[in-house]
Structures are given as structure tokens and as C-alpha cells.
Write a structure and sequence with these properties.
Blueprint (H helix, E strand, L loop, with lengths): L1 E5 L8 E8 L5 H11 L3 E7 L4 E6 L4 E2 L3 H13 L7 E6 L2 E8 L2 E7 L4 E2 L4 H7 L5 E4 L3 E4 L3 H5 L5 H4 L7 E6 L5 E7 L4 E4 L6 H12 L3 E6 L5 E7 L3 E6 L1 E6 L5
Length: 255
């Protein structure tokens, strides 16, 4: 097992993910127990073939359908620790085929776009965020849009209220001061009160902000305590999310 800090070049920043490289799949109960024991936002499990890699992601509570930072971490582990040299890694996942292009220390994740549609803000969302957004949308996650970076930074969420919502997570976002966009991501129902840096949320953020600003390329910063940087591109039905990663830990699991 490897623990990797994703969307950063500094240890103890970005989003930590565990990556377990397996020879073959084991029972799902074991996978979930490992993820719960790690108690990180996600643990990625990989079974590699000659031309592609099977990839699954688990939070401490559930298996999820898409995770950006743990995909980046998986590519970094395969490249730096498992001797994989392909410039483009192909992953078979619950969200279809994903690719990660490797160039020097940069990893470009090609993910499906998940545009959100406008909705009325549920009472639990307003109660959970404590401040009404100027716009509310929904795809897999709720997207709450605010006017200023300070609005996003100042949110003190009521996690019990947010757990009442029918979604995986809640994205809060605004224009940034020194980046095009800023965001935070809360997923208490999945065992992740606040995620440090969330790749999958940008599958919704990128199409929204690209349409609003007219920019195809966007710089993004996540305003968690650890913080992280992402460089994004709207590709229509797909999005590119670019980041870096750094190894923190190598270890063995005894079952």
C-alpha cells in the first residue's frame, strides 16, 4: 500500500489517498474494511493488466463511482513504484474508461463532464451551509454558487443537516481572488466531512464556470485546510484535470 498526497508537490498538503496494488480482486468486505481502517477520504484498489488497469475507490463508508485525487494517486504509484512506463494509463472503472496522461511530474486526468442543472435550494442545504447561495444546481452533487471567495471560505457547515440531502456531496464555489475559481466539498454521508481536494467535483465545476466565464481553461484552488491546486480544461463531454502528486508512505497490509 502507498499513501500519496495528490494535487500538490508538498507532503502534508493536497489530498491524501491510499493506493493498494493487488494481484487479483479480493472480497468487497475486505476492501471496505481496509478503507475504513485507513480512514482517508478514499482508498484506491488497482488490478493491472497488460493494456489497462481495473480501478475501484472506497471511502471509509461506501464504494463510490468516481474519484479524482485517488486516480491521480493510483497513476503515480503505478509509475513510480510498479515500473509502469506508459505515457497514457487506461483505467476501467464504474464511470467507464478513464485515462491519465503522464508527462514529467504532471498527470492529466480525462474524466466525464457532469454538468449541473438549476434546482430550488432544499431547506436542509440552506440550513447546512448557513448562508443562502446566489444559485443552486445539481448533478451527482449539489452545487452552491456564491459571489465571493470569502463567502466560501467562511462557511461553517452543519454536517447533520447536509446528511439529510439526497446526494453524494455538496460543492460550494465562487470566483477566486488568485485563481479563476475556488471551491470546497462536503460529503458527510460518505464518511468525508470535508474533502481536502476533490477531482470529481470539478467534473461539475468546470462546465459551469467555463460557460459562465467563456474560458475553456481554468485555474482552480480548493479552500480546505490542506489546500490544493488544479488546472482544468473544458473539453465538451469530457474534462481535463491536471495535477501533481508526492509520495508520503509505503507499507504492507497483513490479512
Amino acid at each position: 500500500m502507498y499513501q500519496i498526497d495528490a494535487f500538490t508537490t508538498e507532503r502534508f498538503r493536497g489530498n491524501p489517498a491510499a493506493v493498494c496494488l493487488l494481484d487479483s480482486w479480493v472480497d468487497d468486505t475486505i476492501l471496505q474494511n481496509i478503507a475504513a481502517e485507513n480512514n482517508l477520504a478514499e482508498t484506491a484498489f488497482v488490478v493491472s493488466g497488460e493494456t489497462f488497469h481495473e480501478l475501484r475507490w472506497f471511502t471509509p463508508e461506501i464504494e463510490i463511482d468516481l474519484c479524482g485525487h485517488a486516480t491521480l494517486a493510483a497513476a503515480h504509484a503505478l509509475r513510480t513504484c510498479a515500473g509502469r512506463s506508459e505515457q497514457e494509463m487506461l483505467f476501467h472503472t464504474k464511470s467507464g474508461e478513464l485515462s491519465v496522461r503522464c508527462s514529467d511530474d504532471l498527470y492529466t486526468l480525462n474524466f466525464p463532464s457532469r454538468p449541473a442543472v438549476p434546482v430550488d435550494a432544499p431547506e436542509a442545504l440552506l440550513r447546512g451551509l448557513g448562508k443562502a447561495p446566489v444559485e443552486t444546481l445539481k448533478s451527482r452533487d449539489f452545487l452552491a454558487v456564491y459571489e465571493r471567495e470569502q463567502d466560501v471560505a467562511g462557511i461553517c457547515p452543519d454536517y447533520s443537516a447536509l446528511m439529510e440531502l439526497d446526494c453524494l456531496g455538496i460543492i460550494v464555489t465562487a470566483p477566486g481572488n488568485d485563481a479563476d475559481i475556488v471551491s470546497r466539498f462536503f460529503a458527510p454521508g460518505a464518511g468525508i466531512p470535508e474533502d481536502p481536494v476533490t477531482g470529481s467535483s470539478h467534473c461539475t465545476l468546470i462546465p459551469y464556470w467555463s460557460a459562465r466565464t467563456g474560458k475553456q481553461k481554468l485555474s482552480a484552488r480548493q479552500l480546505s485546510r490542506r489546500g490544493g491546486e488544479l488546472f482544468c480544461e473544458d473539453m465538451g463531454e469530457r474534462v481535463n484535470i491536471v495535477g501533481r502528486a508526492v509520495m508520503y508512505l509505503k507499507g504492507e497490509i497483513f490479512l
